[in-house]
Design a protein that fits this description.
Keywords: Hydrolase. This is Serine/threonine-protein phosphatase. InterPro entries: Bact_Sigma-Reg (IPR052016), GAF-like_dom_sf (IPR029016), PPM-type-like_dom_sf (IPR036457), PPM-type_phosphatase-like_dom (IPR001932). It comes from Streptomyces cylindrosporus. It contains 11 helices and 17 strands. By secondary structure, it is an alpha+beta fold. The chain has a 6-stranded antiparallel sheet with strand order 3-2-1-6-5-4. The protein has a 6-stranded antiparallel sheet with strand order 7-8-17-16-13-14. β4 and β5 form a beta hairpin. The chain is globular and about 65 Å long.
Length: 395
Protein backbone atom coordinates (compact mmCIF):
# COMPACT_ATOMS: atom_id res chain seq x y z
CA UNK A 1 0.00 0.00 0.00
CA UNK A 2 1.40 3.34 -1.09
CA UNK A 3 1.27 5.78 1.81
CA UNK A 4 3.30 8.54 0.17
CA UNK A 5 1.59 11.91 0.01
CA UNK A 6 0.94 13.52 -3.39
CA UNK A 7 3.47 16.12 -4.51
CA UNK A 8 2.43 19.68 -3.65
CA UNK A 9 0.89 21.66 -6.50
CA UNK A 10 2.61 24.62 -8.12
CA UNK A 11 0.09 26.96 -6.49
CA UNK A 12 0.78 25.57 -3.02
CA UNK A 13 4.53 25.89 -3.55
CA UNK A 14 4.06 29.53 -4.56
CA UNK A 15 1.98 30.13 -1.43
CA UNK A 16 4.72 28.59 0.71
CA UNK A 17 7.47 30.76 -0.77
CA UNK A 18 8.80 33.74 1.21
CA UNK A 19 7.23 37.00 -0.06
CA UNK A 20 10.50 38.27 -1.54
CA UNK A 21 11.26 34.94 -3.27
CA UNK A 22 8.22 34.56 -5.51
CA UNK A 23 10.13 35.22 -8.73
CA UNK A 24 12.90 32.72 -8.01
CA UNK A 25 10.31 30.15 -6.87
CA UNK A 26 8.32 30.72 -10.08
CA UNK A 27 11.49 30.24 -12.13
CA UNK A 28 12.26 26.93 -10.39
CA UNK A 29 8.70 25.69 -10.84
CA UNK A 30 8.51 26.60 -14.52
CA UNK A 31 11.88 25.00 -15.17
CA UNK A 32 10.49 21.76 -13.73
CA UNK A 33 7.04 21.96 -15.31
CA UNK A 34 7.79 23.44 -18.73
CA UNK A 35 11.55 23.42 -19.23
CA UNK A 36 11.71 27.21 -18.85
CA UNK A 37 15.18 28.61 -19.37
CA UNK A 38 14.49 32.05 -17.90
CA UNK A 39 11.59 33.76 -16.13
CA UNK A 40 11.08 37.51 -15.67
CA UNK A 41 8.29 39.25 -13.76
CA UNK A 42 7.49 42.69 -15.18
CA UNK A 43 5.24 45.03 -13.19
CA UNK A 44 3.53 48.10 -14.63
CA UNK A 45 4.61 51.41 -13.13
CA UNK A 46 2.11 53.85 -11.64
CA UNK A 47 1.66 55.79 -14.88
CA UNK A 48 1.16 52.57 -16.90
CA UNK A 49 3.89 53.54 -19.36
CA UNK A 50 6.67 51.09 -18.40
CA UNK A 51 7.03 47.46 -17.37
CA UNK A 52 9.73 47.06 -14.72
CA UNK A 53 11.61 43.80 -14.08
CA UNK A 54 11.37 42.70 -10.46
CA UNK A 55 14.75 42.12 -8.86
CA UNK A 56 16.01 42.29 -5.31
CA UNK A 57 17.51 45.66 -6.17
CA UNK A 58 14.99 47.65 -8.22
CA UNK A 59 16.13 49.30 -11.45
CA UNK A 60 19.04 46.89 -12.10
CA UNK A 61 17.49 45.94 -15.45
CA UNK A 62 16.04 48.18 -18.15
CA UNK A 63 12.24 48.54 -18.25
CA UNK A 64 10.16 47.74 -21.31
CA UNK A 65 7.43 49.93 -22.83
CA UNK A 66 3.93 49.09 -21.66
CA UNK A 67 2.29 50.24 -24.88
CA UNK A 68 4.29 48.45 -27.62
CA UNK A 69 6.69 45.58 -28.20
CA UNK A 70 5.78 41.95 -27.46
CA UNK A 71 5.52 42.42 -23.68
CA UNK A 72 3.58 45.67 -24.07
CA UNK A 73 1.21 43.98 -26.51
CA UNK A 74 0.51 41.23 -24.00
CA UNK A 75 -0.19 43.86 -21.35
CA UNK A 76 -2.49 46.09 -23.39
CA UNK A 77 -4.39 43.33 -25.20
CA UNK A 78 -4.46 40.99 -22.20
CA UNK A 79 -3.57 38.03 -24.38
CA UNK A 80 -0.40 35.89 -24.41
CA UNK A 81 2.17 36.99 -26.99
CA UNK A 82 4.93 34.75 -28.36
CA UNK A 83 8.23 36.31 -29.42
CA UNK A 84 10.56 34.15 -31.54
CA UNK A 85 14.25 34.55 -30.68
CA UNK A 86 17.05 33.47 -33.00
CA UNK A 87 20.31 33.80 -31.06
CA UNK A 88 20.04 31.44 -29.35
CA UNK A 89 16.86 29.92 -30.76
CA UNK A 90 14.03 30.10 -28.24
CA UNK A 91 10.43 31.19 -27.74
CA UNK A 92 9.76 34.03 -25.31
CA UNK A 93 6.16 33.82 -24.08
CA UNK A 94 4.73 37.02 -22.58
CA UNK A 95 1.74 36.34 -20.32
CA UNK A 96 -0.50 39.10 -18.91
CA UNK A 97 -0.88 39.09 -15.13
CA UNK A 98 -4.32 40.29 -14.07
CA UNK A 99 -5.97 39.73 -10.70
CA UNK A 100 -9.76 40.11 -10.64
CA UNK A 101 -9.60 42.68 -13.42
CA UNK A 102 -6.62 44.62 -12.01
CA UNK A 103 -3.82 44.61 -14.60
CA UNK A 104 -0.52 44.16 -12.77
CA UNK A 105 2.05 43.35 -15.43
CA UNK A 106 3.53 40.54 -17.52
CA UNK A 107 5.31 37.26 -16.87
CA UNK A 108 7.92 36.53 -19.56
CA UNK A 109 8.98 32.89 -19.90
CA UNK A 110 11.81 31.74 -22.20
CA UNK A 111 11.26 28.23 -23.59
CA UNK A 112 13.30 26.04 -25.91
CA UNK A 113 12.40 26.60 -29.56
CA UNK A 114 9.56 24.41 -30.78
CA UNK A 115 8.21 23.64 -27.31
CA UNK A 116 5.44 26.23 -27.37
CA UNK A 117 1.96 24.89 -28.15
CA UNK A 118 -1.54 26.13 -27.20
CA UNK A 119 -2.05 23.75 -24.24
CA UNK A 120 1.28 24.80 -22.75
CA UNK A 121 0.52 28.50 -23.22
CA UNK A 122 -2.82 27.96 -21.47
CA UNK A 123 -1.09 26.30 -18.51
CA UNK A 124 1.47 29.10 -18.37
CA UNK A 125 -1.33 31.70 -18.40
CA UNK A 126 -2.99 29.97 -15.44
CA UNK A 127 0.35 29.94 -13.63
CA UNK A 128 0.78 33.69 -14.31
CA UNK A 129 -2.61 34.38 -12.75
CA UNK A 130 -1.71 32.33 -9.66
CA UNK A 131 1.56 34.25 -9.37
CA UNK A 132 -0.34 37.54 -9.59
CA UNK A 133 -2.53 36.57 -6.65
CA UNK A 134 0.56 35.75 -4.61
CA UNK A 135 2.22 39.06 -5.50
CA UNK A 136 -0.91 40.89 -4.34
CA UNK A 137 -0.78 39.04 -1.03
CA UNK A 138 2.98 39.52 -0.67
CA UNK A 139 2.55 43.32 -0.88
CA UNK A 140 1.42 43.18 2.75
CA UNK A 141 4.80 41.86 3.88
CA UNK A 142 7.45 43.24 1.51
CA UNK A 143 8.19 46.48 -0.34
CA UNK A 144 9.90 44.68 -3.22
CA UNK A 145 6.96 44.69 -5.63
CA UNK A 146 5.85 48.19 -4.68
CA UNK A 147 9.36 49.50 -5.34
CA UNK A 148 9.46 47.77 -8.72
CA UNK A 149 6.35 49.65 -9.82
CA UNK A 150 7.89 53.12 -9.57
CA UNK A 151 10.30 54.91 -11.87
CA UNK A 152 11.14 57.54 -9.29
CA UNK A 153 10.34 58.43 -5.73
CA UNK A 154 6.73 59.32 -4.95
CA UNK A 155 5.83 62.40 -2.98
CA UNK A 156 4.45 61.61 0.46
CA UNK A 157 0.99 62.71 -0.69
CA UNK A 158 1.13 60.33 -3.66
CA UNK A 159 2.36 57.49 -1.42
CA UNK A 160 -0.70 57.98 0.79
CA UNK A 161 -3.08 58.13 -2.17
CA UNK A 162 -1.80 54.98 -3.87
CA UNK A 163 -2.05 53.05 -0.62
CA UNK A 164 -5.67 54.19 -0.35
CA UNK A 165 -6.78 52.91 -3.76
CA UNK A 166 -8.50 49.51 -4.16
CA UNK A 167 -6.55 48.84 -7.38
CA UNK A 168 -6.78 50.05 -10.97
CA UNK A 169 -9.41 47.65 -12.19
CA UNK A 170 -12.09 45.19 -11.21
CA UNK A 171 -14.00 42.63 -13.26
CA UNK A 172 -17.11 40.56 -12.69
CA UNK A 173 -19.62 38.96 -15.00
CA UNK A 174 -21.84 42.04 -14.72
CA UNK A 175 -19.23 44.78 -15.28
CA UNK A 176 -15.60 45.66 -15.96
CA UNK A 177 -13.88 48.68 -14.39
CA UNK A 178 -10.69 50.40 -15.52
CA UNK A 179 -9.29 53.44 -13.73
CA UNK A 180 -6.36 55.82 -14.08
CA UNK A 181 -4.81 58.49 -11.87
CA UNK A 182 -2.36 61.27 -12.80
CA UNK A 183 0.08 62.81 -12.14
CA UNK A 184 1.06 59.40 -10.82
CA UNK A 185 4.06 60.42 -8.75
CA UNK A 186 2.72 63.64 -7.21
CA UNK A 187 -1.03 63.06 -6.98
CA UNK A 188 -2.57 64.65 -3.90
CA UNK A 189 -6.34 64.78 -3.53
CA UNK A 190 -8.03 62.63 -6.19
CA UNK A 191 -9.25 59.13 -5.41
CA UNK A 192 -11.52 56.40 -6.71
CA UNK A 193 -12.92 53.55 -4.66
CA UNK A 194 -15.27 50.62 -5.14
CA UNK A 195 -16.77 47.71 -3.27
CA UNK A 196 -18.59 44.79 -4.82
CA UNK A 197 -21.25 42.63 -3.20
CA UNK A 198 -23.48 39.75 -4.21
CA UNK A 199 -26.15 42.05 -5.63
CA UNK A 200 -24.60 45.51 -5.90
CA UNK A 201 -21.54 47.60 -6.71
CA UNK A 202 -20.64 50.83 -4.92
CA UNK A 203 -18.33 53.23 -6.75
CA UNK A 204 -17.03 56.63 -5.65
CA UNK A 205 -14.81 59.33 -7.17
CA UNK A 206 -13.45 61.92 -4.74
CA UNK A 207 -11.57 65.18 -5.30
CA UNK A 208 -10.05 66.60 -2.13
CA UNK A 209 -9.64 70.39 -2.07
CA UNK A 210 -6.11 71.76 -2.24
CA UNK A 211 -2.80 70.19 -3.16
CA UNK A 212 -0.07 68.02 -1.71
CA UNK A 213 -0.17 66.55 1.77
CA UNK A 214 -3.12 68.70 2.88
CA UNK A 215 -5.28 67.39 0.04
CA UNK A 216 -4.13 63.83 0.68
CA UNK A 217 -4.98 64.00 4.38
CA UNK A 218 -8.40 65.43 3.55
CA UNK A 219 -9.12 62.71 0.97
CA UNK A 220 -7.90 59.95 3.31
CA UNK A 221 -10.37 61.16 5.94
CA UNK A 222 -13.20 61.44 3.38
CA UNK A 223 -12.62 57.97 1.91
CA UNK A 224 -12.18 56.44 5.36
CA UNK A 225 -15.45 57.99 6.52
CA UNK A 226 -17.29 56.81 3.40
CA UNK A 227 -15.97 53.28 3.83
CA UNK A 228 -16.88 53.28 7.50
CA UNK A 229 -20.44 54.35 6.69
CA UNK A 230 -20.73 51.94 3.76
CA UNK A 231 -19.58 49.02 5.90
CA UNK A 232 -22.22 49.89 8.45
CA UNK A 233 -24.78 48.95 5.80
CA UNK A 234 -26.53 52.31 5.51
CA UNK A 235 -27.89 53.98 2.38
CA UNK A 236 -25.93 56.10 -0.05
CA UNK A 237 -27.31 59.47 1.09
CA UNK A 238 -26.57 58.63 4.73
CA UNK A 239 -23.04 57.58 3.77
CA UNK A 240 -22.53 61.05 2.32
CA UNK A 241 -24.04 62.70 5.40
CA UNK A 242 -21.79 60.84 7.84
CA UNK A 243 -18.68 61.60 5.78
CA UNK A 244 -19.78 65.22 5.58
CA UNK A 245 -20.05 65.37 9.38
CA UNK A 246 -16.62 63.78 9.82
CA UNK A 247 -14.96 66.34 7.55
CA UNK A 248 -16.78 69.30 9.08
CA UNK A 249 -15.89 68.14 12.60
CA UNK A 250 -12.21 68.05 11.60
CA UNK A 251 -11.95 71.16 9.41
CA UNK A 252 -14.92 73.32 10.37
CA UNK A 253 -15.79 74.06 6.74
CA UNK A 254 -12.36 75.50 5.89
CA UNK A 255 -11.80 72.74 3.35
CA UNK A 256 -13.97 70.09 1.71
CA UNK A 257 -14.05 67.12 -0.66
CA UNK A 258 -16.15 66.84 -3.82
CA UNK A 259 -17.50 63.33 -4.24
CA UNK A 260 -19.65 61.34 -6.65
CA UNK A 261 -21.27 58.27 -5.07
CA UNK A 262 -22.89 55.54 -7.17
CA UNK A 263 -24.54 52.27 -6.18
CA UNK A 264 -25.43 49.81 -8.95
CA UNK A 265 -28.12 47.15 -8.48
CA UNK A 266 -26.80 44.17 -10.41
CA UNK A 267 -30.20 42.56 -11.00
CA UNK A 268 -31.92 45.60 -12.50
CA UNK A 269 -29.25 48.07 -13.67
CA UNK A 270 -30.75 50.76 -11.43
CA UNK A 271 -28.10 53.22 -10.26
CA UNK A 272 -28.53 55.26 -7.08
CA UNK A 273 -26.43 58.44 -7.13
CA UNK A 274 -25.39 61.31 -4.89
CA UNK A 275 -23.54 64.18 -6.60
CA UNK A 276 -21.68 66.02 -3.84
CA UNK A 277 -19.41 68.30 -5.82
CA UNK A 278 -17.43 68.46 -9.03
CA UNK A 279 -16.86 64.97 -10.58
CA UNK A 280 -18.78 64.55 -13.83
CA UNK A 281 -20.42 61.44 -15.26
CA UNK A 282 -20.95 60.46 -18.90
CA UNK A 283 -22.80 57.55 -20.48
CA UNK A 284 -22.07 55.98 -23.88
CA UNK A 285 -25.05 54.05 -25.22
CA UNK A 286 -24.55 52.62 -28.71
CA UNK A 287 -23.17 55.64 -30.62
CA UNK A 288 -24.57 58.34 -28.31
CA UNK A 289 -22.58 60.17 -25.65
CA UNK A 290 -24.51 62.04 -23.00
CA UNK A 291 -23.64 63.68 -19.76
CA UNK A 292 -25.77 62.39 -16.91
CA UNK A 293 -27.06 65.53 -15.25
CA UNK A 294 -27.42 65.04 -11.51
CA UNK A 295 -28.59 67.53 -8.91
CA UNK A 296 -25.43 69.27 -7.72
CA UNK A 297 -25.33 69.04 -3.94
CA UNK A 298 -22.79 70.52 -1.54
CA UNK A 299 -19.32 68.96 -1.25
CA UNK A 300 -18.57 66.92 1.85
CA UNK A 301 -17.52 69.02 4.82
CA UNK A 302 -18.51 72.44 3.50
CA UNK A 303 -21.31 73.04 6.02
CA UNK A 304 -22.48 71.38 9.19
CA UNK A 305 -25.07 68.58 8.91
CA UNK A 306 -25.76 68.85 5.19
CA UNK A 307 -28.71 66.76 4.05
CA UNK A 308 -28.14 64.68 0.93
CA UNK A 309 -30.67 63.08 -1.38
CA UNK A 310 -30.33 60.15 -3.77
CA UNK A 311 -31.28 60.17 -7.41
CA UNK A 312 -31.65 57.19 -9.72
CA UNK A 313 -30.98 56.46 -13.36
CA UNK A 314 -30.57 53.26 -15.35
CA UNK A 315 -27.88 51.43 -17.25
CA UNK A 316 -28.41 48.78 -19.91
CA UNK A 317 -26.15 45.97 -21.15
CA UNK A 318 -23.58 47.51 -23.49
CA UNK A 319 -23.54 50.89 -21.73
CA UNK A 320 -20.27 52.52 -20.80
CA UNK A 321 -20.00 55.02 -17.93
CA UNK A 322 -17.07 57.39 -17.46
CA UNK A 323 -16.57 59.43 -14.28
CA UNK A 324 -13.95 62.19 -14.30
CA UNK A 325 -12.68 64.52 -11.61
CA UNK A 326 -12.40 68.28 -11.98
CA UNK A 327 -8.74 67.85 -12.89
CA UNK A 328 -9.98 66.35 -16.17
CA UNK A 329 -12.97 68.43 -17.22
CA UNK A 330 -11.71 71.69 -15.73
CA UNK A 331 -8.06 71.84 -16.84
CA UNK A 332 -6.80 74.53 -19.23
CA UNK A 333 -3.97 74.50 -21.73
CA UNK A 334 -1.06 76.97 -21.64
CA UNK A 335 -3.11 79.26 -23.92
CA UNK A 336 -6.08 79.11 -21.55
CA UNK A 337 -8.28 76.73 -23.56
CA UNK A 338 -10.49 74.49 -21.46
CA UNK A 339 -10.16 70.74 -22.04
CA UNK A 340 -13.88 70.59 -21.45
CA UNK A 341 -16.70 68.42 -22.64
CA UNK A 342 -16.03 68.66 -26.38
CA UNK A 343 -12.49 67.27 -26.16
CA UNK A 344 -13.59 64.63 -23.68
CA UNK A 345 -16.38 63.50 -25.99
CA UNK A 346 -13.88 63.17 -28.86
CA UNK A 347 -11.64 60.88 -26.81
CA UNK A 348 -14.57 58.80 -25.59
CA UNK A 349 -15.92 58.39 -29.12
CA UNK A 350 -12.50 57.35 -30.48
CA UNK A 351 -12.03 54.73 -27.74
CA UNK A 352 -15.53 53.25 -27.77
CA UNK A 353 -14.29 49.79 -28.79
CA UNK A 354 -11.23 49.67 -26.51
CA UNK A 355 -11.30 48.03 -23.05
CA UNK A 356 -12.14 50.26 -20.03
CA UNK A 357 -8.51 50.31 -18.85
CA UNK A 358 -7.33 51.67 -22.20
CA UNK A 359 -10.14 54.22 -22.39
CA UNK A 360 -9.28 55.60 -18.94
CA UNK A 361 -5.63 55.83 -19.95
CA UNK A 362 -6.53 57.48 -23.28
CA UNK A 363 -8.54 60.20 -21.52
CA UNK A 364 -5.51 61.07 -19.40
CA UNK A 365 -3.23 60.92 -22.46
CA UNK A 366 -5.55 63.35 -24.27
CA UNK A 367 -5.54 65.59 -21.22
CA UNK A 368 -1.73 65.63 -21.09
CA UNK A 369 -1.57 66.44 -24.81
CA UNK A 370 -4.04 69.28 -24.34
CA UNK A 371 -2.14 70.65 -21.35
CA UNK A 372 1.19 70.34 -23.15
CA UNK A 373 3.06 68.60 -20.33
CA UNK A 374 3.00 65.50 -18.16
CA UNK A 375 3.36 67.78 -15.14
CA UNK A 376 -0.35 68.47 -14.69
CA UNK A 377 -1.22 71.29 -12.31
CA UNK A 378 -4.23 69.41 -10.93
CA UNK A 379 -4.95 65.77 -10.12
CA UNK A 380 -6.89 63.83 -12.73
CA UNK A 381 -8.94 60.74 -11.92
CA UNK A 382 -10.81 58.73 -14.57
CA UNK A 383 -12.99 55.68 -13.97
CA UNK A 384 -14.48 53.78 -16.92
CA UNK A 385 -17.13 51.09 -16.37
CA UNK A 386 -18.56 48.75 -19.00
CA UNK A 387 -21.94 47.42 -17.93
CA UNK A 388 -22.88 43.90 -19.00
CA UNK A 389 -25.73 43.37 -16.61
CA UNK A 390 -27.14 40.20 -15.21
CA UNK A 391 -29.41 37.80 -17.06
CA UNK A 392 -32.81 37.73 -15.45
CA UNK A 393 -34.25 34.32 -14.78
CA UNK A 394 -37.63 33.60 -16.35
CA UNK A 395 -40.37 32.20 -14.16
Amino acid sequence: MNTSEPAPSAESRLRAAPPHALVSTAADLLAELAGAQDVTLLLADYSLTLLHPVTHLPYTADPLPARNGPAGTAFTTQTPTIETLSDPAADLVHLPITVRGDRMGVLSVRLPAGRTDPPLVLRLAEFATALGHEVSTADRDTDLYVQARRTRRLTLAAEMQWQLLPGRGCARDEYVIGAHLEPAYTVGGDNFDWSTGADHLTLTVTDGMGQGIDASLLTNLAVGALRNARRAGIGLADQASLADQALYAQYGGRTYASTLLLRFELDTGTVHAVDAGSPQLYRLREDRIERIELDAQLPLGMFEETHYEEQTFGVEPGDRLIAVSRGVHGIRSASGDLFGEHALRQVLSATRETPPHETARAVVAGLIEHFGSKDLTADAAVVCLDWRGRERSTP
